[in-house]
Amino acid sequence: MLAIDRLSRDDLEETAELHHRHLHMGLFPKMGKGFLRHYQDTFAESPYGIALVARDEEGVLGALLGTTWNAKHYRWVLQHRGPELAAFGSLALMLRPHVGYMFASSRLGRYAKGARRYLAGQSDTASPSSTGAPLSVLSHIVTQDRRRRCGVGRQLLEEFRRLARVRGASEAVLVTEEGGLGAPFFERIGCECIACRKGADGRSVREYRLKLDRTLRHDERLSPLDRSHALVRSDFHELTAARVFADAHGINTAIH
Ligand SMILES: CC(C)(COP(=O)(O)OP(=O)(O)OC[C@H]1O[C@@H](n2cnc3c(N)ncnc32)[C@H](O)[C@@H]1OP(=O)(O)O)[C@@H](O)C(=O)NCCC(=O)NCCS
Q1: Is the pLDDT of residue 183 over 50?
Q2: Contacting residues for 134 by C-beta, under 8 A, at least 6 apart
Q3: Which of 36, 69, 137, 163 is in Cβ range 3.0-4.6 Å of 16 for a Cys bridge?
Q4: Does residue 127 carry a pLDDT above 80?
């Protein structure tokens, strides 16, 4: 029977493998499974993180990582797990010089600046979701390819929604690759597309917003009208939220 649990350290081997195999956006998957285990564990340990695993009798079927207050989560990670991540990250980059070069040329300066800002307490802790509540971010969701379209992703997301809501978040944002498996899934369950742009590696990405105060959409399909309406929405708060999120994830936006 399918169960959704909090991710534990015993799950990290399998969840890092899933992450490495199916999620290719950004730098971290390129740094290998060892680094991903440490990275995923920060979501499980942080008081502002949510780390979930879906499993049945056969093992892990999927995983979800997110935050309930993004700025505070990254500050917590820097303060409590920063040295460990830096050590394992440096090792991973030394073993993969081409990824190290990519990191140095595209992210090192930005990460250092961000780290200084977070540690100095200058980051935007009153994170600008469109409601003014803390900004929650759904960072990663992945399911086993042999068990897709069976409701595993939906159940992971429903539990994320419930937990984030209990912790005071009213909406979450997420970014997924244009043309990937994420976009149709997020649209199906009722997320609203609020921006389209280029990611740091030049790929087109879409940003979505998920309202946490209502259960995920089940039966009705998005009409073409809904879809085009969703795509042109982009008010001040949404752009600011997008910028904070992109910053935290090292994604280039047209604003930068
Ligand atoms: C995206 C992903 C997590 C979806 O997981 P899943 O377990 O297949 O999702 P579910 O079965 O719960 O699907 C929920 C709904 O979305 C629909 N859906 C899921 N994937 C879809 C797709 N590719 N195209 C159209 N509809 C899709 C399902 O049919 C289902 O609709 P229903 O409940 O009305 O029947 C999975 O495809 C995956 O791991 N992809 C690779 C990693 C990835 O791209 N992650 C997203 C970026 S972070």
Answers
A1: yes
A2: 68, 69, 70, 71, 72, 126, 127, 168, 169
A3: 36
A4: no
Report the pLDDT value the prediction gives residue 132, as an integer from 0 to 100. Answer: 65
Nearest residue by C-alpha to atom 46 in ligand 1: 182
- Is 66 touching ligand 1 by the criterion CB < 6 Å? no
Residues in a beta bridge with 52: 6, 64
Residue of 185, 188, 207, 222 with the most ligand 1 atoms within 8 Å of its CB, for mutation: 185
- The pLDDT of residue 131 is 62
Residue 221 pLDDT exceeds 80: no
Query: Ligand 1 centre from 96 Cα, in Å?
Result: 32
In testing the pocket of ligand 1, which one of 173, 175, 181 has its CB within 8 Å of the most ligand atoms? 181
Q: How far apart are the CA of 234 and the centre of ligand 1, in A?
A: 25
Whether residue 147 has pLDDT greater than 80: yes
Quick one: average pLDDT of 196-205? Answer: 86
Instruction: Please check the confidence at residue 219 and state whether its pLDDT lies above 90.
Output: no
**Per the structure block, which two tokens stand in for 173?**
């944002």
141 CB less than 6 Å from ligand 1? yes
Q: How far is CA 3 from CA 51, 55, 64, in A?
A: 14, 5, 13
Tokens 């797990």 belong to which residue? 81
Per-residue pLDDT for 52 more than 80?
yes
DSSP letter for each residue of 191-240: -EEEEEEE-TTS-EEEEEEEETTSPPP-SPPPPHHHHHHHHH---HHHHH
Going by alpha carbons, the residue nearest to atom 27 of ligand 1 is 185
Query: What are the chain's domains?
Result: 3-243 (3.40.630.30)
Q: Is 205 in the pocket of ligand 1 (CB under 6 A)?
A: no
CA distance 13 to 123: 33
